[in-house]
Inverse folding.
């Protein structure tokens, strides 16, 4: 589903992305010139320099590329995972894998995106959707 060009929006690409998450929509951009997906939201394609970036809804399917655990005291919220996920569309994003213990997250694990709404903002997290790629 194609949405408006980031150049047409008054708030800029990052604001459009964050407002979409708040509304329950996970969207990334695609360049009309080179057809490659783009993430993190921008005004200019990092692949070809094109300025015709359009929003679309990705599949949300990905594979964990790298992972680490951030260790915290229980009173500070406990340990959590930080990972890099390669989406099926060809972009890499930083997030975390939820619903499993941080030490269970593995490189190559298949994951699916979910939007979670926190006290401060909505964000994309991933949940395990299969074994390894």
């Amino acid at each position: 589903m194609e949405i408006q060009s980031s150049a047409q929006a008054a708030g800029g690409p990052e604001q459009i992305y964050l407002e979409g998450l708040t509304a329950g929509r996970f969207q990334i951009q695609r360049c009309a010139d080179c057809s490659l997906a783009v993430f993190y939201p921008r005004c200019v394609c990092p692949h070809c320099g094109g300025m015709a970036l359009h929003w679309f809804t990705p599949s949300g399917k990905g594979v964990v590329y790298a992972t680490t655990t951030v260790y915290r005291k229980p009173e500070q919220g406990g340990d959590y995972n930080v990972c890099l996920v390669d989406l099926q569309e060809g972009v890499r994003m930083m997030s975390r894998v939820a619903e499993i213990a941080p030490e269970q997250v593995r490189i190559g694990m298949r994951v699916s995106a979910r939007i979670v709404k926190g006290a401060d903002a909505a964000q994309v997290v991933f949940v395990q959707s299969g074994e390894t790629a």
Summary: The first helix runs from residue 13 to 22. Strands lie at 28-31, 37-38, 53-56, 61-70, 80-87, 92-95, 109-117, 122-132. Residues 1-8 have pLDDT under 50 and may be disordered. The radius of gyration is 16 Å.
